[in-house]
Design brief:
Layout (H helix, E strand, L loop, with lengths): L14 E7 L3 H11 L5 E4 L8 H4 L6 E5 L9 H6 L6 E3 H14 L6 E2 L4 E7 L4 E6 L4 E9 L21 E4 L14 E5 L3 H13 L2 E6 L5 E3 L7 H9 L1 H8 L21 H14 L3 H4 L9 H18 L3 H7 L12 E3 L2 H4 L5 E5 L5 E5 L2 E4 L4 E3 L2 E4 L8 H4 L2 E4 L5 H4 L18 E3 L12 H21 L5 E3 L1 H16 L29 H13 L5 E3 L1
Parallel strand pairs: 1-2, 1-8, 2-5, 6-19, 8-20, 9-18, 10-11, 10-18, 11-14, 12-13
Antiparallel strand pairs: 3-4, 6-7, 7-8, 15-16, 16-17, 21-22
The chain binds 3-acetylpyridine adenine dinucleotide.
Length: 544
């Protein structure tokens, strides 16, 4: 537990082996794994508690879109056998409870310093060490630095004029008050219809006097079909846990158990497709749906069959035809933006107290003292505004830290035109700095905890190799980095992903370079590549 100073353990020792930025799922596993090698580690966490994403995102309805039996650590079989998930999908409070349990069970807190934001990280070329400075005035020296700062951890409120004059209260989904918010009797506006908006809208609608949803881009959403945990399913899953986790390594999204599709959607008849999509729709979840056929994410024509299936579901659910048409996405193929999972999202628009406002045709111009005004001059009176407007994804957290070296390289300059990494793990010119699930890694396209464990285990393997061979420094070559970035782009360009204006390409942040950031070649291919690189003596890395 934090002491009065807000530190969860004593002050950082003068020189660490590894400084870890962040104490979410990634930072905590890094503590466990690297400490297990006898290394002196410490994680610095901006929040007043551990848990990262699951600490901050406390908006109503926040829940994981990966099933709870999958979305958990695999490193301890005792842990995965003993922990009981009450529902098919974990809620934010439940996942946070799990993370806190893990921290206690593996005694991780003593190496976490809370309430501490890392503001700069400087690699001293001569001394061969990093110095991290924090907003509490620490200067922490470490041989290595592991960036576990998250992909969706830098909340962004659009730069709307007048926000400071708003007389009501406003919130961002990713900075939600711990005490919760009661919207009863209020006129509420939700801006944004990504995963966060789609999860909170049905719940806020039940509380608010009136809810206006300001939608710029309609998103595809599938039913989650959440339910209490099926005990027989849990029993079977747990009996097979280690085998399932191993089998997950050979899947594109790090989750086993989904039969691999064998044919194109275009080889099926219209009726066969309808039946297949309907079965997946009833089953709930997004992976299964997108895995109906081999080519939903590579062929526009194939994808259109799935997109139209979902649009028809929306039309069949939402009673007002104009609202239904606005909610039916037409500007991107299904799955090319992160697919949302919902509970009663489309049905919510049949409520008399809910109004959908199209801010694509008439954009939000400003926040006024009493609400919101569009460019066309329409005024909406609001008592509370919720920004479900997303994050500066994948690069935001690292770009907020002044990362540089004494020989003059800065990460800000290096990534000016978009992030450059080798395997998503390291950056040329920035020795001994590892990134967990960074740009160029498949992390966000997978069961994130599996990627976190795989990345961290790879880093541990690299550090063990260095120790064995008495090496001090590791960094990728510029050539290996350039080739990886080119590969990441080539793979993305062979799919439909770049067609969407998503956070995968930074489209939600005005002025952010449009670069496709995640690796979409699959977790299986990525892991094989990482393993081969290590087995080949860390091909593409300079080790000295
Ligand atoms: O953010 P988003 P999110 N005016 O970027 C709109 C994960 N996650 O927090 O699409 C009007 O997806 C923006 O419009 P547009 C998951 O990976 C997971 O919802 O840019 N609107 C969009 O509708 C997810 O993908 C879970 O045109 C504006 C919305 O705000 C990721 O986090 C739950 C605007 C932002 O959507 C991010 O999701 C929650 C403006 N000026 C999150 N600016 C689960 O596990 C932005 N928007 C279920």
């Amino acid at each position: 537990m934090p002491d009065a100073s807000g530190l969860s353990g004593g002050h950082a020792p003068a020189r660490l082996d590894v400084a870890i930025v962040g104490a979410g799922l990634a930072g905590l596993y890094a503590i466990h794994r690297l400490r297990g090698m006898g290394l002196r580690v410490r994680a610095f966490e901006a929040g007043s508690g551990i848990g990262g994403t699951w600490f901050w995102n406390r908006y109503p309805g926040a829940r994981c879109d990966v099933e709870s039996l999958e979305y958990s650590y695999a490193f301890s079989d005792e842990l995965q056998q003993e922990w009981k998930w009450p529902e098919r999908y974990g809620t934010q409070p439940e996942i946070l409870r799990y993370i806190n349990h893990v921290a206690d069970r593996f005694d991780l807190r003593r190496d976490v310093q809370l309430n501490t934001r890392v503001t700069s990280a400087v690699f001293d070329d001569a001394a061969g060490e990093w110095t991290l400075t924090t907003d509490r005035g620490d200067a922490v020296r470490a041989r290595f630095c592991v960036m576990a700062a998250g992909n969706l951890s830098t909340p962004r409120v659009p730069d709307f004029k007048g926000i400071g004059d708003f007389k009501g209260k406003w919130y961002h989904s990713g900075l939600w008050p711990h005490e919760g918010v009661d919207f009863s009797g209020l006129r509420v506006g939700v801006i944004g219809t990504g995963s966060s908006g789609v999860q909170m809208i049905p719940i806020i609608a039940r509380q608010a006097k009136h809810l206006h949803v300001f939608q710029r881009t309609a998103n595809f959403s599938l039913p989650a079909r959440n339910a209490p945990m099926d005990l027989e399913r849990e029993r079977r899953h747990k009996a097979e846990y280690p085998a399932r986790r191993r089998a997950a390594f050979d899947t594109p999204f790090a989750i086993a158990g989904y039969p691999k599709p064998t044919r194109s959607a275009l080889q099926a008849t219209a009726q066969e497709r309808q039946d297949a999509y309907e079965a997946k729709w009833q089953e709930g979840g997004s992976i299964s749906f997108l895995y109906s056929y081999t080519d939903l994410l590579v062929s526009k024509e194939a994808n259109e069959t799935a997109s139209e299936f979902v649009r028809d579901k929306i039309r069949g659910t939402v009673k007002d035809p104009r609202t239904a048409e606005l909610l039916a996405p037409k500007d991107h193929p299904i799955g090319t933006k992160r697919l949302c999972l919902d509970t009663g999202y489309y049905e919510t628009y049949n409520r008399a107290n809910v109004t959908l406002v199209d801010v694509r045709s008439d954009p939000i111009a400003q926040i006024t003292p009493d609400g919101l005004r569009t460019a066309g001059g329409a005024d909406y009176a609001l008592d509370a505004i919720v920004f479900a407007t997303g994050f500066d994804a994948m690069t935001g957290a690292l770009r907020e830290i002044d990362i540089r070296t004494t020989h003059g390289a800065t990460l800000a300059d290096k990534w000016d035109g978009g992030p450059l990494t080798y395997l998503g793990l390291m950056v040329a010119d920035f020795p001994n700095m590892f990134i967990i699930t960074g740009p160029g890694s498949p992390g966000v396209k997978t069961q994130m905890i599996a990627s976190i464990e795989q990345h961290t285990d790879w880093i541990a393997g690299c550090l063990a190799h260095m120790r064995r061979h008495q090496l001090d420094r590791v960094e990728p070559t510029a050539e290996a980095e350039a080739a990886w970035v080119q590969h990441v782009n080539a793979v993305a360009d062979s799919t439909l992903y770049p067609l969407a204006n998503s956070w995968y390409v930074g489209a939600n942040i005005p002025g952010k370079p449009r670069v496709f950031m995640p690796y979409v070649g699959g977790f299986d291919a990525y892991k094989r590549r990482c393993d081969a690189v290590a087995a080949g003596g860390y091909e593409g890395f300079k080790l000295t």
